[in-house]
Design goal:
zinc, alpha+beta, Alpha-lytic protease prodomain-like, ion transport, Cation_efflux_TM
Length: 376
């Protein structure tokens, strides 16, 4: 898992910042400011007291505020995670190969009067744009947070995967339009040229897909690049087969029909990418995260009698964040205890950024997200 970034969020989910905090460890308190009832003021928590008129925070843990082991906790909760090694080179090579393929397919598509070949060239062009988007997002994910973008730029990978899915679907629409036009107005097709060029395209796109196979299961952004390349390899294979068939049968209608069949396969494979990307963009619980297991783990911690305000969202296509309130009537358990919980949340549940708040339970607290919206 790597870098974490999220869009603007309510203050109660942005408490885990290293800017502007002060910490007091006397008398069992851990202070970051003040915390008012019902909502979290923008940078503030105070612990050790919990009055009926205000909701004060017993603890604020970001995994790096342990008085005894600050350095270890900081490394356990790093804010920047580099992308998998080699993906930069993979993007550069895939972009270069696909630009060459686009130029070759476009030229020979015109020469051979092949709609399928031209459609494949258009699809490859969309892949170049998609690869550039994914590459840019991977680079942005390595940028450090700033005063304005306090979570960094990791969420750009979510936007890139969403854009990649949209580009794939747009390319499919172009292919369908061209194929229908060719079915209605058949034209002679140079089967041998189509076969040779499409075969070259299939090999190049197969190599490009292989470059991204390693990280596509863990990173939705890399998965988008992989699907682009794999889909192109499939398109090129289908076009090559149609060219070979036309060479021996002269059935020119095979060219557009094969394009339509390939489109159906691409749409089927792209739908999952579009769905998952949209879910992450809307701050849904990331795939593979079991909220009940996380809640049970937190509830089983010593001194915890209740867990509420539990929120999980994606900071990037490979990083997740969590915020939760732990009701602990005995008070703050100490930074070392909370840092241990944060480490476990990261290692066992893939929560790269965890914010924990301790409540004494002396007032009734409702999550701000549970309140009905204000009437305008």
């Amino acid at each position: 898992m790597k870098n974490n970034v999220a869009p603007n969020r309510p203050d109660d989910e942005r408490e885990d910042e290293h800017v502007g905090h002060s910490h007091s460890h006397g008398g069992g308190s851990h202070s970051d400011g003040s915390h008012s009832d019902g909502s979290h003021s923008s940078g503030s928590h105070s612990s050790g007291s919990h009055s009926s008129g205000s909701h004060s925070s017993g603890s604020h843990s970001s995994g790096s505020h342990s008085s005894g082991s600050h350095s270890d906790a900081h490394h356990a909760h790093a804010h920047a995670h580099a992308p998998a090694a080699g993906h930069g080179r993979a993007f550069a090579l895939a972009v270069a190969l696909n630009v060459a393929i686009v130029m070759m397919q476009a030229v020979y598509g015109v020469i051979a009067h092949s709609t399928a070949l031209l459609a494949d060239a258009g699809h490859n062009l969309s892949d170049v744009l998609g690869l550039l988007l994914a590459w840019g997002a991977t680079w942005l994910a390595t940028r450090r947070p700033s005063a304005r973008f306090t979570f960094g730029f990791g969420s750009s990978s979510i936007l890139a995967s969403l854009a990649n899915a949209a580009l794939l679907l747009f390319a499919c629409g172009v292919i369908v339009a061209e194929a229908i036009g060719r079915l209605m107005n058949p034209a002679p097709v140079a089967g041998l040229a189509v076969f040779v060029v499409a075969t070259v395209g299939m090999v190049v796109n197969g190599i490009s897909a292989w470059l991204f196979m390693r990280g596509q299961k863990e990173d939705l952004n890399i998965r988008g690049a992989f699907l682009h390349m794999a889909a192109d390899a499939g398109v090129s294979a289908a076009v090559a087969l149609s060219g070979l068939a036309i060479l021996y049968t002269n059935w020119t209608w095979l060219d557009p029909v094969m394009s339509l069949l390939v489109v159906a396969v691409i749409v089927y494979g792209t739908w999952g990418l579009l769905r998952d990307s949209a879910h992450l963009a809307l701050d849904a619980v990331p795939p593979g995260v079991d909220m009940q297991r996380i809640r049970d783990y937190l509830a089983d911690q010593p001194g915890v009698v209740d867990v509420h305000d539990l929120h999980v969202w994606a900071l990037s296509t490979t990083g997740n964040a969590l915020s939760a309130h732990l009701v602990m009537p005995a008070g703050h358990p100490g930074d070392e205890s909370l840092d241990g919980i944060v480490v476990t949340l990261r290692e066992r549940f893939s929560m790269q950024h965890a914010t924990l708040q301790v409540d004494l339970g002396t007032t009734e607290h409702r999550c701000a997200m549970d309140h009905p919206p204000h009437a305008h």
